Protein: Signal transduction histidine kinase
Amino acid sequence: MGDNRIDVVVADDDPAVREALADLIDSHPDLELVGLAINHEQAVRAAVDHRPQVVIMDVHMPRGDAPSSVRAIRDQVPDARVVALSAHGERETVLNMLAVGASGYLVKGTPAEEILEAIIRAARDQFSMSAELLADCAEPLRRAERASWRFEDLVGNRLEDSYLELLGHAPCGVLIVGPRGRIEYANPHARHMFGYGSAELRDKRLRDLVPERYRTASEQLIGRVFTAPSAMTGRRRDGTEFPAQFSGGHLQGRQPRGVVFIADLSQLRAAESRFRQLIESSPDAMLIVDTGGRIQAANNRTEALFGYDRDHLIGRAVEALLPDQPLTVSLREWDDSLEEPVGHSMELVGRRSDTKQFPADVSISPLRTEEGLLTVLTIRDITEVQRAQFVLERSLELLEVTDRDRQALLSHLVHAQEAERGRIAADIHDDTIQVITAASLRLQQLRRRLRDPDEQRVMDKLDETLKLSLSRLRQLIFDLRPSSLEHGCLAGALRGLLEQIRTETGLTYRLEDRLTANPPAETMALIYRTAQEALVNVRKHAHAKTVHVQLLGLDDGCLVRIVDDGEGYNPLEVESRPGHLGISLIQERAQIAGGWCRIESAPGAGTTVEFWVPLGAPPDAPLGAADSPEGDPQP
Structure:
């Protein structure tokens, strides 16, 4: 790039680590992520394509090996530097990587700041190594044939500045002890760990930094070629103690010196304690199982659930608790897989110490450790869950039956209502209208016999009253059974209703019919009655000037939308008042047909009524009003 930013390629087959490294590099203002790789082949290809200053590479990846990849990158991109990254720090692997030209070697788990620092140092052609590897590899590196330097070149009467700089960036405490057992150098990490300044630590002995009970053990670290890490306790300047891991080595030069590496285990112990607390406080039984299916750890809830003491469980096969289950097969497949394992859950059968069995929900999660891949099993007794699920399913079945019965009852009520409307309309047509018509005829005969003008005017008014009664009765018959509806024309029936409202109130209407299929007779009657109820509300309460009615085909059903420009209302206030049953009736009628209803309104904003019903007969629907045996009366 044109600026001074360092181009970096990240190569790691673990997606979580790869993404974390990428985010870490993106967060640093001096670094630029230019490429990602998931195996050795891609790592070499990315280095050739992007020509970065630094490649940070996982040692153990598929499709190749790390030393070959380092050689290929150094041969094809001479300016690139490779920083090795690994979950393990075997001495042979570290030495091989350094021999082929790696500029650093870090173990996974190294703090993010130190990884960033190692990348920057590599770009400057400076070397970096995790402190825990340094003690293990220092002596073999000194003796290797490919290394021509000797410690005398690094340490004379004083340590060389570059070596001190390397120790200064070590992620652990480093002390260099002179031949008289006095501390000659302490890196910043050690000074911070023990709470001393640089001058204060000089000439102290290592035994001054540990409690008295560890003084003998601390002195044994000095003068040996190499000592394995030993758990002891450090003592700070203020007298407080902390758990620590000490390891030492021997640096041979003109004046032999010892080096001591110290790791503060406080955070590690705290993390282990939190992990144990998490396991113990879990409301579910938790087991840690190895790839052979052997139980390595168990919590209190496991003892309570299965009835075993945890000491009795450790080392036993997990089949003792989850018999005849395909569990250990899954664990072995994880161990052999090159891909990062992903947790999952299974419904299995658990067996208690008294041989009683119970249904169990088992969550299976991988846990990578230095000892290899382990598995965390979280086990929950789901007996009550299954019982509740059964009760819920039965309740839902009962609810469905009840709902079907309710819909059937409402459907029969609608049918009975339409039938009663038809009977009343027929009675009005066949009886009342006929009687009034006969009375009108006789009245006209009587009028012709009268000679007195006053008496004739009275008869004329009486005749007009009878004609008005006939007109209103005919309108009542239409309201009860619209002739258009009788002939299967929903739009025609609504148009007749709108015309009546326009005649009575002067309301302007627009009817839009986009239905492509005719509903069954009963569904048509229900749609009409629902729309009629909404339009009656418009006529009585809305004080509207216009109303727009739409019949739309939607999702194998009929959507009716009625929009007026009236005064509107607050639904929460109006719908709860006594006497305002129209809105409830609209909603009930839509539900009868298996549909839905939506009403929107606000003061001064008009009202929109929408309802949808499927174009099919509702459950257990009887014959529609048009199919009733009442006949087809005409006014």
Q: What stands out?
A: The chain has four domains: 4-143, 169-266, 384-474, 481-612. Residues 71 and 100 are 6 Å apart (CA to CA). The longest helix spans residues 383-449. The chain has a mean pLDDT of 78.
